[in-house]
Write a structure and sequence with these properties.
Length: 374
């Protein structure tokens, strides 16, 4: 067995063993960030609700462990109440129902899952601002707040729900809205050097771009690493569904920016562009997300270019496994040292469920399973 295949198989064995163990405590719930060794369980409406069931589906696809399937199905059912509570829904419906209902439908052909995912796609498309050509990110966080003009880079990963909906219904409206949002990202979010803005605020009436905002990065001119990772993967997925080369070329530009800023261990700090007086903890979740995007990118470029992206994605995942993984301890998270929201001081050195999910997705891809839930 080659050294490459050996570490991948070893890592997958560790993942399946640990998920079998932690699933007994987490159950059909919605972990977000781990503190003191245990995942904090959020309400079903929280934006990360899809990642635990998505992780369970990733492992189930390989092991056919019915206990994991049953937990993933129960999580999906719990999201029904959220789907009918309009006030809780925002653009992250893509994250939530792609990794639950779309995954379930793709794996097992469940018709109820297809219906749930199509309803979510319709609700997501309802957030599209036709004057600004963007999908509105959030609902007001506090009474009286107006964020109707806000769009964020993360939403690129919600677009696959719309692309999928067009594929299964034959209705191009979903795909058209997704492409218009992706075009807005190209125009306003991606800097010339491949860096990425987290938040752009538009005038919701005219659609005029008003300002770029730092968001979860250090500032408007910094380079939040997880936002860069969302862009690599999200733009590559837009190319996957549309075949439009502008998305592929921009994904490559962002990928080169990301790779040029990686430290020796291939796992990024939370922001690539920081003043000397600001702490720079790691964000292992950004590494895992980028690795998945790089592996898909490797499949979309020419044969000459492909090894650049594939090797980089593999090196990130290997480092996460060997240097950041917790396999025998009491920690429920798989991958340590992620940073959720440094400016707000939230979970700045913790396992995060989306970091765990993307690590497992990336491993599955290295094992040869290239069928996407996205």
């Amino acid at each position: 067995m080659s050294e490459q295949l050996q570490w991948i198989n070893e890592a997958w064995m560790q993942v399946t063993k640990k998920v079998n163990r932690t699933s007994k405590r987490i159950g059909a719930n919605f972990p977000h960030a781990s503190e003191n060794g245990k995942y904090i369980l959020e309400e079903p409406y929280w934006w990360t609700a899809g990642f635990w069931p998505g992780l369970l589906w990733q492992v189930y696809r390989d092991t056919k462990d019915d206990s994991l399937r049953q937990l993933a199905e129960k999580c999906e059912e719990k999201l029904d109440s959220v789907q009918h509570d309009y006030y809780r829904l925002d653009h992250d419906m893509g994250f939530m129902w792609t990794l639950t209902s779309v995954a379930h439908y793709k794996l097992l052909g469940n018709e109820d899952s297809k219906r749930r995912a199509l309803l979510a796609a319709n609700l997501l498309m309802g957030r599209f601002n036709v004057n600004g050509n963007y999908i509105r990110a959030w609902n007001p966080w506090t009474e009286g707040e107006d964020n109707s003009g806000v769009a964020i880079i993360d939403c690129l990963m919600n677009l696959p729900l719309l692309y999928w909906a067009s594929e299964v219904t034959g209705d191009p409206r979903f795909k058209n809205a997704a492409k218009k949002h992706a075009d807005t990202v190209l125009k306003y979010f991606i800097r010339n050097d491949g860096g990425v803005h987290h938040i752009i605020r538009f005038d919701p009436e005219s659609g005029e771009m008003l300002e770029a905002m730092g968001g979860q990065g250090n500032g408007r001119d910094s380079a939040w690493s997880r936002g860069t990772a969302w862009a690599i993967y999200g733009l590559t997925l837009s190319y996957h569904y549309t075949g439009e080369v502008k998305y592929l070329e921009t994904a490559k530009r962002v990928a080169h920016f990301f790779l040029s800023h990686l430290p020796e261990d291939f796992v990024p700090d939370w922001d690539f562009r920081l003043p000397d007086d600001v702490d720079s903890p790691k964000d292992s979740s950004a590494g895992a997300i980028a690795a998945c995007g790089l592996l898909l990118l490797a499949d979309k470029v020419t044969a000459a270019e492909s090894p650049i992206y594939h090797r980089a994605g593999e090196k990130i995942l290997q480092s996460l496994y060997k240097n950041y993984g917790d396999w025998e301890g009491s920690e429920e998270g798989l991958i340590l040292h992620a940073t959720s929201h440094f400016p707000e001081g939230k979970y700045t050195d913790n396992p995060l469920i989306y970091g765990d999910y993307y690590f497992v997705e990336g491993l599955a891809r290295l094992k040869g399973n290239k069928d996407l839930f996205w």
